[in-house]
Amino acid sequence: MFLVSAFFILIFICFVSGGPCDNIVSVTSSWSGGYTTALKVPIKTSITSWKMDITFSSVLSNFQVWDATSALTNTLQYRLSCVNYNGVQNAGATLSGVGFNAYYVTTAPAPVVNSILFNGVNICSNVNPTTTKPLTTTKPLATTVKPLSTTIRPVTTTSGGGLPTKYNYREAIAKSHLFYYAQRSGRLPVADNPIPYRFDSALNDRGQSGEDLTGGYFDAGDHLKLGFPLASAITIIAWSIVDFPLGYSSSGQLTNGRNLVKWATDYFIKAHVSANKLYGQVGDGTLDHNYWGRPEEMTMNRPAFFISATNPGSDLAGETAAALAAASMVFKSVDSTYSALCLTRAKQLYAFAKQYQGKYSQSIPQVAGYYPSSGFGDELAWSASWLHRATNDVAYLNDAKAFYTQYGLSNNPSSFSWDSKNAGVQVLLAKLTGETQYKNAVKVFCDAKVNQPKTPKGLLFIDKWGSLRHASNIAFICLQAAELNISPLTYRQFAQKQIHYALGDTGRSFVVGFGVNPPVKPHHSSSSCANKPAPCDWSTYSSPAPNPQILYGALVGGPDNNDVYVDDRNDYVKNEVACDYNAGFQASLAALQSLAFQGLFN
Q1: Is 319 a catalytic residue?
Q2: At the N or C end, where does the chain have fewer CB atoms within 10 A?
Q3: C-alpha to C-alpha distance for 120 and 458, rounded to whole angstroms
């Protein structure tokens, strides 16, 4: 078995890295059915714009590019064109930052780049690319070939000091994005769906007055759409893109990060059907949890529930405002029109949250069994802080400070989560004002977590529900505190240890499709289904076999306070996945990757 696996792995390496353009194209991440590249183009003469024609050895199923625009010129060739910030290049420079994801059918050989014409000139080491042929005599890849995480080197540098990066953050970020792709609801774009077992779903999602509520993300292993935890997750991910863009760009994942955010914010804008009306849930929890199968095949009723002036939800409206304000910053330099739309809706939702105060889980009692809110004061301060950061309007800052005092947000919270934003408010106000009171509050929080006794194997254990989620969220807060020069080495060491616990420090990975002995039976309905026409139902749920589909990048709930974990689909406490589970985890990865790329970890 080992010899067979090694044979296919060797074939895979030859296909993705044995082409004539390896002097320009380097593979930074790979998996069964796709790979990520970075391009480095030497500039011979000064230019003011460029076009790059990339020809592959065989047809791709999907192609995603960043730091460039792309168009398909024939079945094998894509034309990349410069964007406004990288068209001008001086002689002797190297054009970097441009890269792409190439996707292909796993039963066919992996395509290689056969030629690259840069402004009409071949720049590959093989000056006669037309003589290069794909290796058609080799067997195609088996569909069971595992992603080659072991063949991808972690970022290493020779400058700076810090801690070893024993795991490949770039790969983990890329695969976290694949998890979010797998969670998408609605009509999926043909040219942007790297998950082969996912198709259009929940196309009849409608509000009580017929409003279009298609799109968004399914919350977890089920098919509910829940606005409050999703908005929290998107705020955190947008925050990481705003503050650690290098973590994404150096991983070739900046465009995917923006796409992740936009898929959610498009939905939030739809769900905000009028100034004081916001839908916060689609689907009935009982009906949804009584169904196990593909989201594409759901037939149950999916009612929708909203908050309004008479049934307020300052927490839901405030968190959604925070997500949209943070998103407006993500898109400000790349899509000013969309950025302005996000900011307009953020202002409206904040005004709604502030004027009509109440807990959303009282106005939407159907959600109380899943994501009940403990209060809304933290979301009011959180959204006001984000709006000040996005607009520089001092009125929002004054509101944030007032709410901070009114609701006692200086108190040391136990966690940072979809329900508790206190620690996030402390960090954000420290960033915005530089005032000692906020920095001290952040220091108290992170010092308490650094010094809190850990599990025998080193996990900061907060709660059995999403134990890895809680540790990752706190890691991100303390990485943010380090950026404020508050105990930077201590907090970065602490954060890295928590993320490395998830990536494999206990001897196994807790991230599906990543590292050593990852989970293979996550509590996740769609990935438990074999390809059609095979049925998928409760007998599938009970099967002892691994999920037929690999849910790449999903962080499972995690072990208990004694590090006990069993990879069991039936255990929805330890083995379910969720959009908010990956948020702080991905954000922390981006921060660590940014530090590593700068040489602070070597």
Answers
A1: no
A2: N
A3: 55
